[in-house]
């Protein structure tokens, strides 16, 4: 039995049937593979779209989180400035009150200076 050349139809009806059957199988396989490839491409496109949406959501969450942190720092800074201001104000007022008290009672101030002078002479 000689092998038929490509493109030539065999004379034997059984070989012709096998050839047509194989051709049909190859066409079916080709259609199946095209469907699967299309399905995979669609799935990949949908997956990429979901990933893109997830990334966008993460970026929005990250931005919201960063904004919240920035707001917290600004609040912390404001509170810190208030604390420093209050502390400074209290120190200044305390010093001022003590200065005024010493002016109201100069004899106490003079007594302490006299005591200091006595100690220094010894």
Write the SSE topology.
Layout: H1 13-104, H2 106-121
Describe the structure in your own words.
By secondary structure, the chain is an all-alpha fold. The protein has one domain (13-121). It contains two helices and no strands. It has helices spanning 13-104, 106-121. It is rod-shaped, with a radius of gyration of 48 Å.
Write a concise synopsis of the structure shown.
This protein is mostly helical and about 120 residues long. The chain is built from two helices and no strands. The chain has one domain.
Keywords summarizing the entry:
rod-shaped, mainly alpha, 122 residues
- The SSE order reads HH
- What's the average pLDDT? 84
Shape: rod-shaped
- The counted number of beta strands is 0
Radius of gyration: 48 Å
Q: Could you tell me the strand content as a percent range?
A: under 5%
N/C terminus separation: 139 Å
State the share of residues found in helices, binned by percent: over 70%
Q: Which regions contain 5 or more consecutive residues with pLDDT less than 50?
A: none
Largest sheet: none
């Amino acid at each position: 039995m000689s092998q038929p050349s490509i493109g030539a139809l065999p004379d034997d009806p059984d070989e012709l049937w096998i050839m047509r059957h194989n051709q049909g199988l190859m066409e079916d396989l080709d259609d199946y593979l095209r469907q699967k490839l299309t399905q995979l491409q669609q799935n990949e496109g949908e997956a990429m779209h979901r990933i893109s949406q997830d990334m966008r959501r993460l970026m929005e969450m990250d931005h919201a989180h960063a904004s919240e942190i920035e707001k917290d720092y600004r609040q912390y800074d404001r509170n810190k400035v208030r604390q420093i201001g209050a502390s400074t104000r209290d120190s200044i007022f305390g010093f001022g009150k003590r200065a005024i008290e010493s002016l109201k009672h100069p004899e106490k101030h003079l007594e302490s200076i006299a005591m200091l002078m006595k100690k220094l002479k010894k």
